[in-house]
């Protein structure tokens, strides 16, 4: 067994089955780390046991020892979505459409099963293998939820920047939140930067709550109207009017031939490298701290809005004359809202990711909790 990742609560190792030689990823979780948080891992296991789809990382088996719980997971070795796009020499709208179709197909399957992922984002999309035509896989079901009676949830969870307005507004929500997140991912895949960004947290949340985004020139000049229409229907503020996965799968940009084949690799990859530095991808904050912070921002939002009325709220994407690996100063940190209501001092123990940077490389949190 070879250690692949060590986290605060668990580690992921690469393991080989002796009888067959097959390789697996094993999530090793110390039971002492689960005390008081058993419901979280039970939820993840319950969800993973139910699902079987070619574009979703599968739970193969579970083993238990006196001190540890071992989740035997399908090995996905093709790397992260952004890395693969940057490495490509040729990338088109059609490539993005193919990626999004696979995500929609998998999420539509989840929704038919009554499961909401609640944390769809590019770093949870992995390639199955290193082949050029590899399929994309959805991973990390630590925040997923099986819908109950009434199909309504209310726990603040997800990653601001990808999370739907109704979640930030702390309103009851349903599977439509996943469709919003897919719209945000599609937006990024076509330009390389996020639709919502501001170094001021209050303004960032305000943009999301209002669905205030643009198709900025010149970054969107060569993108088809069909792609823009597809994104607009998913990033619809009103969840009742927002496209479902089934509607999105029927859109011409997915099911037809409206996705363009023009090479947009240079522009998109340049923006990805500037706006999504790896050290900023993987920060997690507990729900209590974030919700308290959001409430404080709401209390001061009217004052802030009037004071900043004449200040531009949407900085431009990073420009080409900047260092390609330097993240822009105006890009927000992707903050994770964990679903554990009891997590007053730690993030979810199930959110294990491969290739996590050393803690010293991670910037200081933007959102903090004052006691």
From TrEMBL:
It comes from the Eukaryota. Gene3D superfamilies: Phosphorylase Kinase, domain 1, Transferase(Phosphotransferase) domain 1. SUPFAM superfamilies: Protein kinase-like (PK-like). Residues 301-333, 345-371 are annotated as: Disordered. Residues 301-327 have a biased composition (Polar residues). One of its GO terms (molecular function) is protein serine/threonine kinase activity. Residues 1-254 form the Protein kinase domain. Signal peptide: none annotated. PROSITE patterns: PROTEIN_KINASE_DOM, PROTEIN_KINASE_ST. Keywords: ATP-binding, Kinase, Nucleotide-binding, Serine/threonine-protein kinase, Transferase. PANTHER family: SERINE/THREONINE-PROTEIN KINASE. This is Calcium/calmodulin-dependent protein kinase 1Da. It comes from Takifugu rubripes.
């Amino acid at each position: 067994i070879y250690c692949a990742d060590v986290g605060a609560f668990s580690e992921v190792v690469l393991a080989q089955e002796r009888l067959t030689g097959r390789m697996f990823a094993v999530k090793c979780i110390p039971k002492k780390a689960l005390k008081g948080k058993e419901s979280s891992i039970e939820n993840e296991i319950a969800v993973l046991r139910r699902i079987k789809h070619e574009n979703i990382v599968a739970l193969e088996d579970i083993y238990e020892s006196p001190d540890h719980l071992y989740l035997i997971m399908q090995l996905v070795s093709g790397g992260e979505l952004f890395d693969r796009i940057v490495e490509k020499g040729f990338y088109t709208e059609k490539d993005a459409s193919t990626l999004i179709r696979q995500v929609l197909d998998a999420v539509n399957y989840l929704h038919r099963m009554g499961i909401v992922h609640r944390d769809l984002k590019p770093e949870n999309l992995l390639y199955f293998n290193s082949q050029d035509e590899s399929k994309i896989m959805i991973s990390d079901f630590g925040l997923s939820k099986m819908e109950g009676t009434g199909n309504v949830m209310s726990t603040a969870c997800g990653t601001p920047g990808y999370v739907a307005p109704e979640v930030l507004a702390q309103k009851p929500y349903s599977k439509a939140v996943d469709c919003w997140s897919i719209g945000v991912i599609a937006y990024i895949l076509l330009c390389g930067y996020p639709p919502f960004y501001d170094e001021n947290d209050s303004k960032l949340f305000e943009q999301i709550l209002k669905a205030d985004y643009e198709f900025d020139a010149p970054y969107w000049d060569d993108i088809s109207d069909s792609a823009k229409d597809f994104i607009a229907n998913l990033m619809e503020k009103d969840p009742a009017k927002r496209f479902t996965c089934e509607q999105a799968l029927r859109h011409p940009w997915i099911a037809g031939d409206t996705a363009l084949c023009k090479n947009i690799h240079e522009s998109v990859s340049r923006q990805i490298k500037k706006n999504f530095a790896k050290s900023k991808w993987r920060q997690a904050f507990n729900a209590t701290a974030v919700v308290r912070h959001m409430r404080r921002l709401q209390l001061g939002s009217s004052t802030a809005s009037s004071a900043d009325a004449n200040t531009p709220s949407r900085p431009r994407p990073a420009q080409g004359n900047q260092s390609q690996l330097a993240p822009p100063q105006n890009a927000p940190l992707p903050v994770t809202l964990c679903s554990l209501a009891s997590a007053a001092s730690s993030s979810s123990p199930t959110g294990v990711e491969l290739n996590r940077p050393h803690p010293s490389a991670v910037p200081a949190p933007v959102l903090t909790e004052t006691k």
